[in-house]
Amino acid sequence: MKCKKWLPLSFIFLVITSCDRDVKISEQKANIAVFAAKEKSQFHNFDAVNFTYIGEELRGQVVYNRDKTTESEFVNFSLDVKACATDIAKDELKMAVNYIYYVPSEDDETVFEPLYTRDNYYTDEWFYTKKESIPPPTNAGSTNELNKKLKCKMGKLPATDVLYFFNNYYGSLLLERTPRGIAEYPGFLSIVNSVKTRKTEDKLVVTYTMSKEELAFLLQASFGKNIDEMTSEEIEWYKTHPWYSENIERTLNGLNLIRHTTTIEIDNEGLISRVTNDISYTVTYYETTHTIIEKTTRHYKFKNEANFVFNDETTIIFPEFIDYIDLTNIYYPNNI
């Protein structure tokens, strides 16, 4: 589904949020409100942006072999990210992104402990990055590997270019920690039919809950054409394609959906202020390798929250950048 025209945001708020309780509205009106807010919330439209993200990811695979043995592999971690950019409109952009990477404790898997921090900066034509383990490793070899301080003179870059780099690097946190389409709203929202909205004094809240059939379609579509480039007519055609009908039943049989909810909050200025995801499901399938049939179950769990504040008064305090290894001659020799 593609929207050819935007309705005035004030009109959207008036129509779909006329009371402070959950109301039933059409899928189209809810999506129009979200689409408009997404377009308006592009970072380059503001002089300052603050972004925070916290999320947990679990990706696991269990293979049941023919000899009844199992092989398990699980990746479980969480991230805490803070980013801010200033002087965007002046094209003198300064940016700082700091994040902490957590892993489950060896004593208690439900408790996460910090493993390392990474700090990235861009200021005065230079890009700096620092990675530091927590606690500092005792092994000298691992110290060199885990603790790094690097810098590179990238020259004066347009603010949009630097934002594009950071948005791809850190914006992907939201995309990679969830099935494709959650943050790329058009394709995802066009296939979800369960839409609820509510209005408070300062925000509009739109919640999307995906059904098992809708998730199965999203998983199948991810192996074909990019769903975010498909019109509603193309989606309907795709659902009637023989390849889809042959594979969707297999996907449904092996899919166990526990929950799949995405909530988008829009402030009174029509800007996205928060996006949260609570997703958990498993996919089971069978593979034949050298006449041996193996059963594989993949586990996916994503729970995250991203917050945005635009044009807030922000001052970035940069470190002194001492002892950073200069890589300019390797990547940008013309800037020396």
- Read across the widest sheet, the strand sequence of neighbours is 7-8-9-10-11-1-2-3-4-5-6-12
Distance between the terminal alpha carbons, to the nearest Å? Answer: 49 Å
Low-confidence stretches: 1-19, 139-143, 171-185
Total number of beta strands: 12
Our count of helices gives 9
Q: What is the structural class?
A: alpha+beta
Q: Give the overall form.
A: globular
How many domains in all? 1
Tell me the major beta sheet: 12 strands, mixed
Q: Per DSSP, what share of the residues sits in E-state strands of 2 or more residues?
A: 35-45%
What average pLDDT do the residues reach?
Answer: 75
Share of helix, binned: 25-40%
Rg (C-alpha, Å): 23 Å
User: How are helices and strands ordered from N to C?
Assistant: HHEEEEEHEHHEEHHHEEEEH
Describe the structure.
With 336 residues, this protein is of the alpha+beta class. The protein has one domain. It is 26% helix and 40% strand. It contains 9 helices and 12 strands. It has helices at residues 9-16, 27-40, 140-146, 159-176, 185-189, 212-221, 232-239, 242-254, 328-331; strands at 49-64, 70-86, 94-104, 112-123, 126-133, 148-153, 194-199, 203-209, 255-267, 272-289, 292-310, 325-326. The chain has a 12-stranded mixed sheet with strand order 7-8-9-10-11-1-2-3-4-5-6-12. Strand 4 and strand 5 form a beta hairpin. Helix 1 (9-16) packs antiparallel against helix 2 and helix 6 crosses helix 8. It is globular. The protein starts with 8 loop residues before the first helix and ends in a 5-residue tail after the last helix.
